[in-house]
Design a protein that fits this description.
By secondary structure, the chain is an alpha+beta fold. The protein is about 15% helix and about 35% strand. A 5-stranded antiparallel beta sheet has the order 1-3-4-5-2.
């Protein structure tokens, strides 16, 4: 996906969480390993999905990640914290896509998307998003956030 001219701001995202940069997150070059960016995206979405009051849970179903895209914009270094912004970018028939951005000291370090599919817990096959889930996803919808 093409990147917008200006990176997003943390305030553009309806969901915001923090995570710590751990020493164990570093690679041989001394910066946060690329794979850890996916973990930060996970931190941004899991709290939302499983939120007790306003989560995205559907009885008898679960959402699974089927695609992950990351655009790396700058290095992250230890020690420190990151802020992860999350929004819903798209809503499909049985899937939805999160837009994410990782911030460190106010600067955007990465952007990306995670596509989730709702599956039946027993059959493990996709199933349509129910109206109540679609309504909740629409509350978090921010299309064209990342370009």
């Amino acid at each position: 996906m093409p990147q917008p001219t200006e990176p997003p701001r943390l305030t553009d995202f309806p969901i915001r969480v923090s995570d710590v940069i751990r020493f164990g997150d570093l690679d041989r070059q001394g910066h946060v390993n690329n794979a850890v960016f996916a973990t930060y995206f996970e931190s941004g979405r899991v709290g939302l999905i499983y939120d007790a009051e306003n989560g995205l849970q559907v009885p008898g179903a679960t959402s699974v990640a089927v695609r992950l895209e990351i655009d790396f914009l700058r290095e992250l270094r230890w020690p420190g914290t990151v802020e992860i912004g999350t929004a819903v970018a798209d809503i499909g028939r049985s899937s939805y896509r999160f837009a994410h951005a990782i911030f460190h000291e106010g600067d955007c370090a990465a952007t990306g998307y995670t596509t989730m599919v709702l599956i039946d817990r027993e059959t493990r096959r996709s199933r349509p998003l129910p109206p109540e889930l679609i309504a909740r996803l629409q509350e978090l919808l921010r299309q064209d956030l990342l370009g």
